[in-house]
Amino acid sequence: MSETVSIRDLGNGVRLVALDRPEKKNALTGAMYDAMRAALTEADADEGIGAVVFAGLPSVFSAGNDIADFAGSLAKPFSEAPALHFIRQLARTRTPMVAAVDGIAVGIGTTLTLHCDLVYASPAARFRMPFVELALVPEAASSYLLPRRVGRLKASEMLLLSEVFDADAALSLGLVNAVIPSDLLLDHAVAQAARLAALPRGAVQATRALIRGDQAEVEAALEAEAAAFEERLRSPEAQERFRAFLGRAKPGAA
């Protein structure tokens, strides 16, 4: 356990990265981002790890950023934020990634899945990206990746209006591979990850690169978002939204 992220190597070349902060609906802190980034970096360097599975325990994927923790980090430049370091590693990771989404997936809980090679969701999954509601902009290259998955108009609905969409909608849009019952979800994701890990590592990585296309464009979008995100963080609009959000004492958000 590393600051409420459980990282375990399950055998068969599979590493499980499980968020386990149920009292805050798996809202992510800087320490959790650091732990997840390290898990991905180490997986790329370890010939024995052929796939990484992201999951949320119990019965919730992630409520997004812990806003109190995030707001407390604003004294430093956003370029030093653990969230940004994790997002950069997420985009560059060579090891196949699988997501098992059960329950709410807010903000990074949704945008993380755009970088995964396989995504499975339970019927209880609910996806939402409320960046604009918080007077922010999208992150994790979602402003680039999402329109290319679902089209510009649907992406606008999701990113500008922060529309909630469920597992069936995600399936119809091609954002998840299958909807799996909650009690079978993690086992299914791990089994699929083991299949990936059993394949020739070099061939898997080369095929991933071909499927994903121009990595430079993804990273350019990520950096453009990061610059806009930092500008928005310092804006009076965002400061007002953060104060209002913290006043309601709800966990998570972006």
TrEMBL record:
Entry-linked CDD domains: crotonase-like
Keywords carried by this UniProt record: Isomerase, Peroxisome
Localisation per UniProt entry: Peroxisome
Pfam families for the chain: ECH_1 (PF00378)
Keyword Isomerase on entry: yes
PANTHER family: ENOYL-COA DELTA ISOMERASE 2, PTHR43684
Protein name in the entry: Enoyl-CoA hydratase echA8
Organism of derivation: Methylobacterium jeotgali
Organism lineage: Bacteria, Pseudomonadati, Pseudomonadota, Alphaproteobacteria, Hyphomicrobiales
